[in-house]
Amino acid sequence: MIKVILVDDHAVVRSGVKRLLEEQVDLQVVAEADSGDDAYKLYHQHQPDVMLMDMNMSGSSGLATLGQIKARYPEAKLIMFTSRTEVVFAVQAVGAGAKGYVLKSSTAEEVIQAVRQVAAGKSYLSSEVAQAIALQNISADDDPTCALTPREFEIFRLLAEGADIDTIAETLKIGQKTVANYQTQLKHKLNINTPVELVRLAVKHQIIRLQ
User: Fold this and answer.
1) 71 with 65: CB under 8 angstroms?
2) Which of 20, 63, 82, 122 lies 20 to 30 angstroms, CA to CA, from 94?
3) What is the layout of strands, in order, in the sheet containing 78-82?
4) 153 and 93 in contact (C-beta within 8 Å)?
5) Which of 75, 31, 32 has its CA nearest to residue 57?
6) Are 22 and 60 in contact (CB under 8 A)?
7) Cβ atoms 205, 145 nearer than 8 A
8) Residue 45 in this model has a pLDDT that exceeds 60
9) What whole-number distance in Å separates Cα of residue 63 and Cα of residue 101?
10) Rounded to the nearest 10 degrees, how much is the dihedral formed by the CA atoms of 32, 87, 68, 102?
11) HSE on the CB side for 84, CA within 13 Å?
């Protein structure tokens, strides 16, 4: 039996995925969480075979939680479950240690296959994302944000969304001085000088979406 923990801040999504997984004789949902903090605690408590986690939750994001879990449990098998099709998010998730990246628009069969494959020690990328990565690899349009570390990427995304240093420090559970140092590193690494340039870069590569 493959033990799974579901993490999503939308109860309706969790309910649908749970029903889908538990229709399979070899899959069992042992716990559910609606936040990154709860996900971390439940992982420690249940030690699941696979954690299926939303990437864009309020508060601590799935990417930040992924990093926290992998730091303590290097062998943890986590799948990012998301609506974000942009290549940079998949690259950052895999770089942070995710074993799978599955779109919420995927078929039921694809979600089930991803859980089974990751539980077996393999990796899984949704076909749409895998194709996008392949196309980007042969494209001349390089995205400098793909070269950021997962921590740098999270801080870059939060800054682009308008979060201040205090908010970022609280969200990622790191010191304000650490955030300020990362902010300086990002300016050098991405060759940007102002908050406006940072936002433009984030919008250009679809890391944030302006309403």
Assistant:
1) no
2) 20
3) 27-33, 2-7, 50-54, 78-82, 100-103, 124-125
4) no
5) 32
6) no
7) yes
8) yes
9) 11
10) 20
11) 23
pLDDT value for 96 = 86
3-class state of residue 113 by DSSP: helix
Beta carbons of 111 and 102 less than 8 angstroms apart: yes
Contact 65, 36 (CB under 8 A): yes
With tokens 């999270």, the residue in question is 154
| Residue of 124, 82, 89 lying closest to 103 (CA atoms) | 82
Using DSSP's 3-state secondary structure scheme, residue 30 falls into strand
Residues 165-180 have pLDDT tens digits of 998 998 888 899 999 9
The residue length of the chain stands at 211
CA distance 108 to 6: 15
Q: Cα separation of 33 and 196, whole Å? A: 36
| First-to-last C-alpha distance (Å) of the chain | 44
DSSP class per residue in 151-184: HHHHHHHHHHTT--HHHHHHHHT--HHHHHHHHH
